Amino acid sequence: MVLMKERLIALFGAAPDEYLSGSEISRQLHVSRTAIWKHIQALKEDGYTFEASPRLGYKLLSVPDTLQPSDIASLLRTKTLGRTVHCYEEVDSTQNIAHRLVQAGAEEGTLIVAERQTTGRGRLGRHWHSPKGKGIYMSLVVKPDIPLHMTPHLTLLAAVALCRAIRRVVPEVSPGIKWPNDLLIDGKKISGILLESSAENENLQYIITGVGISCNLQKEDYPEELLPKATSLYMESGKRVDRAALIAEFLLQLEELFDLYMSQGFGPIRTLWEASAVTLGQSVRSSDPNGEYEGTAVGLNDWGGLVLKLADGTLKTIYSANARESGHM
Amino acid sequence: MVLMKERLIALFGAAPDEYLSGSEISRQLHVSRTAIWKHIQALKEDGYTFEASPRLGYKLLSVPDTLQPSDIASLLRTKTLGRTVHCYEEVDSTQNIAHRLVQAGAEEGTLIVAERQTTGRGRLGRHWHSPKGKGIYMSLVVKPDIPLHMTPHLTLLAAVALCRAIRRVVPEVSPGIKWPNDLLIDGKKISGILLESSAENENLQYIITGVGISCNLQKEDYPEELLPKATSLYMESGKRVDRAALIAEFLLQLEELFDLYMSQGFGPIRTLWEASAVTLGQSVRSSDPNGEYEGTAVGLNDWGGLVLKLADGTLKTIYSANARESGHM
């Protein structure tokens, strides 16, 4: 099967922008036209696109966009982040790979990218839909020299960095941040960020920043139940996204914002976060062991908690991302 | 070898408080007197103590103090902590076992205790000296419902709990806390606490609280180089410590202080910590990327950082336990 795929690709590669008829392919590869149709379908699943004409046959339109470390390296303008990149065809979860690499001594800034995740995960152990070659599924190892209690600032910083990177690479869209670090376009989720941190006493050991971005997914790539609340950069902009460019831009934004944070503290990050937030002004429900709360989100506190103004005018800060927006989310 | 040890123990068990001569043992077990001497040495290493008389032979004085889950359970007065106990003869590190158990779903309050650790670890990956049966080497799984940025409070809370537990069970000694959570008696280290925490974004997933306490170690149990800076409860009090009682008391103190923390916040914990601290008033050196600092420790800030008063009168808060006291430590 694999060999036949490669022979088909070679055949189309030798005749760029031309139609190859089913009978011509059949003659050259010594297989039936039904077998050819099956192999074409398999190639489509791998990300190849074809134009099919009953009269002329098949024309190869595009080869899959697979990420290579060299693609990212050629665009990278960072000092440290992403200077070591590991690309995988398929993994259970890039977070798991990153944890293993850290245990084995992976250095600051090591990036893990996969074309597909079988058990990609989001917040609270939720599944992250990761179809092959269509999204960015990556995990970044960082070992920031900050005390543990400041780690939540980085959760917000990462969202600001990704928001800015998307706006630069895909200027047609304007994502907003849903507290703490989901990105939405018109209320639909475009990406999720998960920071898994590990500490010894007050010393942060490392953070693995997992990022999932729906780049070139089309409507048919989503399960029916996700369509009302998920979208992709392609669906919103009408253009294919250069994933390597978006990764390189995100790493640059992240590094620059982290330098800003280290020199000026949380203040500027908070300002940037609030300027891009869609959560502020919205009604947010939350619960803790003492009961349920509902209030209007008015801002962040010094520790990245979301400040709610309750119906009686009192302020309450929530920290858990279990908070639910009232309404459709 | 093992079989011979068991036969020797059985022989002494059948003659309590009596001397058994070398020739008598030799006759009954059909081994040479040199072999008997070797087996007695091996038993001593396992924690058995003997009196040896050139004329009378050997008398068994005490069998090793091995911890059993039932010993701890019978003394336990907690609601949750330590309600599940796993005791091991020898492990690499109780922290490692605890991490594995958490991944496998271990519940809140699960306690891991070992008689011996081959690679017991303290802060910053330092080795923790863990001779067999002489200390308490334990790890506790907790999943407190607090935001990540409050975790450093628990580092200090654990030190207060252990300090109070030791004072109750061994009233002859009066340990003090060295920031953040080492316990000292007269400047010598008696125990260390290491909290390894894991978080997803601002949500704390779990903390593994590792505690090492030097209980019944004697001078000869220490490598020469540790003697100037380490001591044991036995060496300081002159009495053997009931390890199960100390574990049960620590868990009770920890649970009660945590309830206090959840109802009244960090204030009372800070007061208790400061009242037991040996660090306050001392000169402390610290370094960060911006340089070296030296100042007098004057208290804790709201986030558990140590506030130093520098020579020029300004205050500086340090968070990293890399801070070194000036002088002998």
Largest interface: A-B, 31 and 32 residues
Widest beta sheet: strand line-up of chain A: 4-5-6-10-9-8-7
Oligomer: homodimer
Report the radius of gyration of chain A as a whole number of Å.
23 Å
Structural class of chain A: alpha+beta
Describe this protein with a few key phrases:
homodimer; five-stranded antiparallel β-sheet; alpha+beta; elongated; 27% strand; seven-stranded mixed β-sheet; 329 residues; 15 strands
Structure description:
The structure is a homodimer of 329-residue chains. Chain A is of the alpha+beta class and 329 residues long. In chain A, 33% of the residues lie in helices and 27% in strands. In chain A, the strands form three sheets. In chain A, strands 4-5-6-10-9-8-7 form a seven-stranded mixed sheet, sandwiched between helices. In chain A, strands 14-13-12-11-15 form a five-stranded antiparallel sheet, with no helix packed on it. In chain A, strands 1-3-2 form a three-stranded antiparallel sheet. In chain A, helix 6 packs across helix 8 and helix 6 crosses helix 9 (266-276). Chain A starts with a helix and ends with a strand. Residues 323-329 of chain A have low confidence and may be disordered. At the A-B interface, helix 6 and strand 9 of A face helix 6 and strand 8 of B. Strand 9 of chain A pairs antiparallel with strand 8 of chain B.
Give a short synopsis of this structure:
The structure is a homodimer of 329-residue chains. The first copy, chain A, has helices spanning 2-13, 22-29, 33-45, 69-75, 94-103, 151-169, 233-237, 243-264, 266-276; strands at residues 19-20, 49-53, 57-62, 85-88, 111-114, 135-142, 176-178, 182-185, 188-200, 203-214, 283-288, 291-300, 306-310, 315-318, 324-325.
